[in-house]
Each structure stands twice: as structure tokens, then as C-alpha cells.
Write a structure and sequence with these properties.
- It is a single chain.
- The mean pLDDT is about 90.
- The longest helix has 4 residues.
- The termini are far apart.
- Strands 1, 8, 9, 10, 11, 12 and 13 form a 7-stranded mixed sheet that branches.
- This protein is mostly beta strands.
- The protein is elongated, with a radius of gyration of 16 Å.
- The chain contains 2 helices and 13 strands; from the N terminus they run βαββββββββββββα.
Amino acid sequence: MILFSRVRGLPVVTDGEAGRLGVVRDLTVDAAAGAVTRLRVRRGRLRGEAAPAWQDVIAVRADRLVVRPGAGEDTAEGPSHHDLLGRRVLTETGEERGTVLDAAFDPVTGRIETIRTTLAELPADRMLGLGDHALVVRATRTDRV
């Protein structure tokens, strides 16, 4: 497992040619699927942003991410994106469950395993949606008591 916070800020290079694509700004998450779907790569002040698909990531190393050549070239806008880290956590019934501090995920598959919040560690299978306002999670019986 690897933490979101460890990936942010890492350089992204292309395989083979080792050309630098940019730096990881964030990760795009499909909350319903419980997985990272894209990298958000800051390419530089004048070059904008790239959004390569997670399946284009060949390796996650301590000092960089390696992607397939051409990854992210046609996805500068990419799908809608909402930051996970720092997001409020609410149950589907509107109960406050803290703020997201970090998330642990499998670097090979992109599958999120746990969400670390200011109040607890939540299994990723409780995630229902992620939007501008909050990460919405499934309430448990103990949440409703």
C-alpha cells in the first residue's frame, strides 16, 4: 500500500525515453468504484496539466512515477476532478465524520483500501461519492446509534 500524501509532488517520467511529464498534483478518484482513475500532473506554468489514466502508470517508485510514452497527451482536461485530501466526510444521512487526512491504495491496481480521517480510519468500501462539498460514506449501525 502507498499513501496519497507520498505520491503528491513526485516527478512523473515516461518509460524508455525518461522524459519528464511533470509533477503529481493530485489523484482523481472514482469513489463508487473505490479506485484511483487518473493522475493530475502539473506540467509547468505554460504547459498546463495532463491527466493520464491510472492504467498508464507502469511503476510507482519512492522518487518518481513512470508512465507509458504518450500518457496523458490527449487528456489535458480529463474527467471531473475533486480533491480527496482535505475533503469533509459526511454519511449519506448528513452526519459529520471528520475530514480526510490521507488514503492508502494499491499502487498496481489503484484500488483504495482505507481512508484516514480526523476521527477514524474508514474502509474504502464505505465510499459512495465525492463532490465539491464532501466525501459521502455509507453510515454504519454504530453511526446511527
